[in-house]
Amino acid sequence: MDRKWIKEIESGRYAPVYLFYGMETFLMEEAIKRLEDAVLGVGEDREWNHTVMDLEEIPVQDLVLEAETPSFFGRHRLVVGKNAWFLTSAQGRKKQEHRPEELVRYATQPLEGNVLVLTVPAEKLDARKKVVKKLRKQVREVVFHPLDSKELPRWVAEKLKETGVEVHPKTGEVLIRQVGGDLRLLDMEIRKLATYAGPSGRITPETVTELVSRTLEQDVFKLVDRVARRRVAEGIALFYDLLQNREEPIRILALIIRQFRLMLQVKVLAAKGMSEREIASTLKVHPYPVKLALRQVSSCSEGALREWLFRAIEADRAIKSGRIDKTLAVERLILSIR
């Protein structure tokens, strides 16, 4: 994410019109909150000067009318138009009769003191559309891509620092390993850990292990990781641990298949010279699982990965056709990978 715009608003320089898009919606929501604090400040009239409209429910020309309305109290206003799908090649849930030329007109001559923000949770805009070409010349464009393997630890470290609680250097690494790359979930867990530690406490890797619940996806990743490293006994132990926690074998198998498929895709695309971010974009997945999959496949051949995926799919078919018990099928699958 481009951070220059953050420095701009911190110095009191805001653009009259912003265009936010990208798949990392949590960062986008944080950006709007940052703008709200910077533009509106504090005061009883803050909520009166903050308007949010859904462009799947309301045409953009109505949003423009709102942006053209000055503050009743002579202060700044923040007007947000969510789900601006008409700027992309995708279709929204409801078809609206948007007049995008009104938006372009406003962007050319915005009302002084007001800030208009358009948001859309899409990977990219449709650069072929006239409205997009014209808007890009007039507005401040900010893209919110999922954080890559270098950005994610930095973001977690910043969030931990913001709590004001003393943090062990390895805490962020363990937290990411436990939770994954979901920023919303990571933020929630960091808040929980900080509350538990208290102002004079300390957040350690042990605190994370004790308080943060593991997800089934993370456990299955560990299981597959052990199997990929030919540590089959550890993989079986993890499977039995999941069964003791009353996880459903068919669900576990479905996640194993998903992970094997991801590993194979990553192996193939990496061999073509694609970067981590390019692979994530092609597969439409978060960069963090791609980073982990790249590590997993470093010692695996493409042929082995194809064979593992084939065996996992065959195990699934055998279960669903009633030819084998579901627990036994997963056990045999794990034991077959040598």
From TrEMBL:
<keyword id="KW-0548">Nucleotidyltransferase</keyword>
<feature type="domain" description="DNA polymerase III delta N-terminal">
    <location>
        <begin position="18"/>
        <end position="142"/>
    </location>
</feature>
<feature type="domain" description="DNA polymerase III delta subunit-like C-terminal">
    <location>
        <begin position="217"/>
        <end position="336"/>
    </location>
</feature>
<dbReference type="InterPro" id="IPR027417">
    <property type="entry name" value="P-loop_NTPase"/>
</dbReference>
<dbReference type="InterPro" id="IPR048466">
    <property type="entry name" value="DNA_pol3_delta-like_C"/>
</dbReference>
<dbReference type="InterPro" id="IPR005790">
    <property type="entry name" value="DNA_polIII_delta"/>
</dbReference>
<keyword id="KW-0808">Transferase</keyword>
<dbReference type="Pfam" id="PF21694">
    <property type="entry name" value="DNA_pol3_delta_C"/>
</dbReference>
<keyword id="KW-0235">DNA replication</keyword>
<protein>
    <recommendedName>
        <fullName>DNA polymerase III subunit delta</fullName>
        <ecNumber>2.7.7.7</ecNumber>
    </recommendedName>
</protein>
<dbReference type="InterPro" id="IPR010372">
    <property type="entry name" value="DNA_pol3_delta_N"/>
</dbReference>
<keyword id="KW-0239">DNA-directed DNA polymerase</keyword>
<dbReference type="InterPro" id="IPR008921">
    <property type="entry name" value="DNA_pol3_clamp-load_cplx_C"/>
</dbReference>
<comment type="similarity">
    <text>Belongs to the DNA polymerase HolA subunit family.</text>
</comment>
<dbReference type="Pfam" id="PF06144">
    <property type="entry name" value="DNA_pol3_delta"/>
</dbReference>
